[in-house]
Amino acid sequence: MPKIKGEPKMVAAVDPSLGSAAVAYGVVGCEPQKVSLELFTATKPMKDVEGRIARWEDHAGQMLECLKRANPFLVMIEGYSFGSKGQATLDLAEFGGILRKFILDKFVLVEVSPSSLKKFITGNGVAGKTEMIAEIAKRYGVMFKTNDEYDAFGLHLMAQCYIEPKLMQNNHQREVMNKLKGLAS
Fold first, then answer.
1. HSE of 87 in the Cβ direction (CA atoms, 13 Å)?
2. H-helix or E-strand spanning residue 86
């Protein structure tokens, strides 16, 4: 668990998707409608190694610039999904490594498994995207265009609770946070 010092005010969250990715940021304790969201689209795929790395550096660099503007105390990122197959798995690994390196050079980074995000939002670690979207829309009164934005928003809620535990709303959120922080349930 990262050491947290001082009075954090701003947290950010990253959904690191390949085609489009989302960054959510806002002040700890802010109203859900005040969370800022930005969506980033990767350049078209390249086949050679130099082209692929340049593509991922550009994609990660766009997100890093957004994070620098927000200047968060903490960045929360969704961990790898192990359901991907084929080239997508390799691309995710390349991109994920570059993105995490870029973020770690500037910020405190906490990685969250996809199942922890799902459990935090819905109470069910194997919930589908539709359940996640419905729960976020119902509970927080927000609507987005992409799954990536919903994931980034959910991660931002987690980041807020990571910093300010009194923001947790139920037992499954406390359970996820305790596990994430390495505390006994």
1. 5
2. none
